[in-house]
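Q: Hi! First time doing this. I have a protein sequence and I read that you can turn it into a structure. Is that right? Here it is:
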Amino acid sequence: MLNKRGKPLMPCSPAKARLLLKEKKAIVVRRTPFTIQLTIATGETKQPGSLGVDAGYEHVGLSASTEKAELYASEVELRSGAVGLKPLPTLAKDHNRSKDRGDKT
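A: Yes, that's right. Below is the predicted 3D structure, encoded as C-alpha cells:
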C-alpha cells in the first residue's frame, strides 16, 4: 500500500483493500505484487518491523514481524544438507546412461 505521494505504508488486509477500491479511495498500481495507492491524504505512521534470518546447516529460516504479529515466515531446506543426494552432474550422467540403454525412467 502506498500513500498519496507514492511512499510505502504498512500492508492492509485484502478486505480493507477491496473496501478502499470500491469507495474510490485507492487505485491499483501493480498486480504482482498487488499494490494499491491511496487517492486521499492520510497519516504516514508506520509500525517498526524486524527481519529475522536463521542460517543453519540444513535449513534457512526467515521471519518478518512487528511487535503484535508475524507478517511473513518461511523455511528453506538446503540441498547440500540433504542426506542421500548425489551431486547434480552424477544424476545427469546416470540419466543419460540409462536413456542410452533404453531404460524407462
